[in-house]
C-alpha cells in the first residue's frame, strides 16, 4: 500500500517492515533517525511505548494516548521544524521525532466513506470494549452520535468506557447493553471473527440485525466474517475494516510527504496484497 502510494507520488523512497523487540524500540527509532528515515509506522505492542520515546507529541497522539506514526523533522534556516522531505539531499545534523496517531480518524473516515454513515445524530451499537473499542466509542462520541450502546463480554470494561463518555460528552445517551429499538449502525470492535469457527460477537437473541441499517467489522481478514455475512443477509449495508487500515496509512503518507495520498491506488494495492 505505502510503496504503491510512494511510486504514484514519484518519490525515490521505499517502505519496509522491521521486526523490533519492545526492549529495542528506542534504539530502533534512534537508528532510523541516524539513517535519515523520513518516518515510521509502529504497531502493537509499540504504540504505547513510543509515547515516551518521541521528542514531540502531536495533538492526535496526546488525545488517543498512542503513537502509530513518527515523522522525523529538522530545523530550516529560520529555526522552524520541518519534515525531512523539505531538506532534499542534505543531511541535517539535528533531527527530532514527532509522534502522531492516525488510527482514530481512520475509523470515522471509513464509516463515512465506505459505509456512507452520517454519524452526527446516529444510534450506534458498539461491540467490544478493548483498546480498539474504547477508541471507537470516544471517536463516535466526538462525532456527536445521539445514542451509543456498548456491549462487551466483560461488561465492567464497557461500564468504564460509558462513564468516561458520560463525563466528556454529557449530551450523548450512552448505555451498557443492547438497544430496544432500531439503530443506524452495529460496529464490531472485538476480535471475534478473526479465527475460523469464532462465535458471532452479537447475541441475535438480544438484538436482531434486521433492526440495523448498517454493519461494520473492524476485522478485514477474513474479508467477510460471520457477523458481516449475517448482517448482509439481514439487509444491512456492510463494510469491513480494510478502510481503517487504508486511511491510517494514507494519513501517515500525507504526514511524511506533505502531499495528498493517492488513496485509490493504495486501496487497490492493499486488496491485491492481503486477499
Ligand atoms: P484490541 O486492541 O483489538 O481492541 P483487546 O484490547 O484485546 O484488543 O480487545 C479485544 C476485544 O475482543 C475485547 O472487547 C474482548 O472482550 P473482553 O474485554 O471481555 O476480553 C473481545 N473478545 C476477545 N475474545 C472474545 C471472545 N471469545 N468472546 C467475546 N469477546 C471477545
TrEMBL record:
Domain Quinate/shikimate 5-dehydrogenase/glutamyl-tRNA reductase: 117-167
Catalysed reactions, semicolon-separated: shikimate + NADP(+) = 3-dehydroshikimate + NADPH + H(+)
Gene3D superfamilies: Leucine Dehydrogenase, chain A, domain 1, NAD(P)-binding Rossmann-like Domain
Pfam assignment, any one: SDH_C
CDD domains listed in its UniProt record: NAD_bind_Shikimate_DH
GO MF, any single term: shikimate 3-dehydrogenase (NADP+) activity
Domain SDH C-terminal: from-to ranges: 241-270
Keywords: Amino-acid biosynthesis, Aromatic amino acid biosynthesis, NADP, Oxidoreductase
Pathway: Metabolic intermediate biosynthesis; chorismate biosynthesis; chorismate from D-erythrose 4-phosphate and phosphoenolpyruvate: step 4/7
Biological processes per GO annotation: aromatic amino acid family biosynthetic process; chorismate biosynthetic process; shikimate metabolic process
Shikimate dehydrogenase substrate binding N-terminal domain sequence ranges: 1-70
Major enzyme class: oxidoreductase
Taxonomic superkingdom: Bacteria
The enzyme's E.C. designation: 1.1.1.25
Protein name: shikimate dehydrogenase (NADP(+))
Organism: Pedosphaera parvula (strain Ellin514)
Amino acid at each position: 500500500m505505502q510503496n504503491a502510494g510512494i511510486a504514484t507520488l514519484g518519490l525515490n523512497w521505499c517502505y519496509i517492515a522491521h521486526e523490533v523487540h519492545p526492549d529495542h524500540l528506542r534504539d530502533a527509532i534512534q537508528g532510523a533517525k541516524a539513517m535519515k528515515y523520513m518516518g515510521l509506522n509502529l504497531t502493537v505492542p509499540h504504540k504505547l511505548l513510543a509515547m515516551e520515546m518521541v521528542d514531540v507529541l502531536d495533538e492526535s497522539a496526546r488525545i488517543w494516548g498512542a503513537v502509530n506514526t513518527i515523522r522525523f523533522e529538522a530545523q530550516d534556516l529560520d529555526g522552524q521544524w520541518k519534515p525531512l522531505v523539505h531538506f532534499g539531499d542534505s543531511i541535517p545534523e539535528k533531527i527530532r521525532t514527532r509522534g502522531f496517531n492516525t488510527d482514530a480518524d481512520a475509523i470515522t473516515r471509513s464509516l463515512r466513506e465506505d459505509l456512507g454513515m452520517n454519524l452526527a445524530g446516529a444510534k450506534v451499537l458498539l461491540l467490544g470494549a478493548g483498546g480498539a473499542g474504547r477508541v471507537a466509542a470516544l471517536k463516535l462520541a466526538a462525532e456527536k452520535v445521539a445514542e451509543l450502546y456498548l456491549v462487551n463480554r466483560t461488561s465492567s470494561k464497557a461500564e468504564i468506557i460509558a462513564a468516561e463518555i458520560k463525563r466528556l460528552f454529557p449530551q450523548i445517551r450512552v448505555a451498557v447493553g443492547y438497544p430496544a429499538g432500531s439503530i443506524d449502525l452495529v460496529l464490531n470492535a472485538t476480535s471475534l471473527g478473526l479465527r475460523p469457527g469464532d462465535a458471532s460477537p452479537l447475541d441475535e437473541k438480544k438484538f436482531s440485525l434486521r433492526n440495523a441499517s448498517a454493519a461494520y467489522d473492524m476485522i478485514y481478514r477474513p474479508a467477510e466474517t460471520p457477523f458481516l455475512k449475517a448482517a448482509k443477509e439481514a439487509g444491512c449495508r456492510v463494510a469491513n475494516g480494510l478502510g481503517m487500515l487504508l486511511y491510517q496509512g494514507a494519513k501517515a503518507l500525507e504526514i511524511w510527504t506533505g502531499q495528498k495520498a493517492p488513496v485509490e491506488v493504495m486501496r487497490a494495492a492493499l486488496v491485491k496484497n492481503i486477499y
